[in-house]
């Protein structure tokens, strides 16, 4: 089989790959030096679109509309852009072996790729109920959402099961975003999750109460405190019922599962140092192996602000870590230095007419402020988290761009806060003073 050699190789074709490619171009990569290898059949795209605009019943987003780097207000990098920059895209190419010692990757087809510097941008894969041996979890129309092929299957199934019943398993990002978009498709939606409230890793009970009531007002049914333990199917092998641990049985024409993800690090096991489920990297995303970098979901890196190390699964970090790694590669080659990665955690989501942003750390005591009535025409509310007398995190629903910038600044600066009551009364005014 063929052997191909490149100075730089990016393995993975998600968000990080697209932003890394743009930074390579900005740094003056020469034609023929860079290759991106991805098992997906399309050039890198903004993955968040899949759980939002891609599934809209009208005016749905489609490629090439959301190729990277349009998600952060940049130029869309169409396949022609890569060709024009002399960047080689190997699409539908699944790497099955990586030998970091010999700087070699091997594809399922037997092709060999040699490199001088490697960026690991393999991202995550969804956790599947079949992985846990859940009875009937291999029935047809039990679906997941990670890649564009998954989204296409969802679109087809929504059309085939018009006005049908959907059960969403999971109450995190995917659960909330898909419950909303399924409702927009006029489906009967039930969301099931084991926790006492939705988005428990980020939301407080007060924040979650707003979203749960808002969703109920939109017609989404919510069942908390239990899990799916099995599925029944019809004669065609299609799911027809979801069996819950509490004994209830739900009718379902479609089931969508969003119960988490795991970073794709298997190719590199035993070859590179790992920590907290990811590949250990420094503030420049260098790994323990020379000339190998890890970015996005797979990287466990120093969180300078909090003096600890973390792994972050979010598109904002996927973009920024990719750019940092490429800058570090060129700085290293040129004998220069760049600033350490100093990441402010940022998460966001959009559903129905809602849009929230969160910055910082959700630790310590939390206080809620503003109009958090689910019946409001334009709800706008937020929360601050206070630890050791400082505001360390800030959340805002319904904020303007300037207001979102203000809460980001609060989380970065970590101003002193004397009283939860005062913060609750001041609300956004506190952020605007910082």
Automatic annotation (TrEMBL):
<keyword id="KW-0521">NADP</keyword>
<dbReference type="InterPro" id="IPR050446">
    <property type="entry name" value="FAD-oxidoreductase/Apoptosis"/>
</dbReference>
<protein>
    <recommendedName>
        <fullName>monodehydroascorbate reductase (NADH)</fullName>
        <ecNumber>1.6.5.4</ecNumber>
    </recommendedName>
</protein>
<dbReference type="InterPro" id="IPR036188">
    <property type="entry name" value="FAD/NAD-bd_sf"/>
</dbReference>
<comment type="function">
    <text>Catalyzes the conversion of monodehydroascorbate to ascorbate, oxidizing NADH in the process.</text>
</comment>
<keyword id="KW-0676">Redox-active center</keyword>
<keyword id="KW-0560">Oxidoreductase</keyword>
<comment type="similarity">
    <text>Belongs to the FAD-dependent oxidoreductase family.</text>
</comment>
<dbReference type="InterPro" id="IPR023753">
    <property type="entry name" value="FAD/NAD-binding_dom"/>
</dbReference>
<dbReference type="InterPro" id="IPR016156">
    <property type="entry name" value="FAD/NAD-linked_Rdtase_dimer_sf"/>
</dbReference>
<dbReference type="GO" id="GO:0016656">
    <property type="term" value="F:monodehydroascorbate reductase (NADH) activity"/>
</dbReference>
<dbReference type="GO" id="GO:0005737">
    <property type="term" value="C:cytoplasm"/>
</dbReference>
<keyword id="KW-0274">FAD</keyword>
<dbReference type="Pfam" id="PF07992">
    <property type="entry name" value="Pyr_redox_2"/>
</dbReference>
<dbReference type="Pfam" id="PF21791">
    <property type="entry name" value="MDHAR3-like_C"/>
</dbReference>
<keyword id="KW-0285">Flavoprotein</keyword>
<dbReference type="InterPro" id="IPR048618">
    <property type="entry name" value="MDHAR3-like_C"/>
</dbReference>
<keyword id="KW-0520">NAD</keyword>
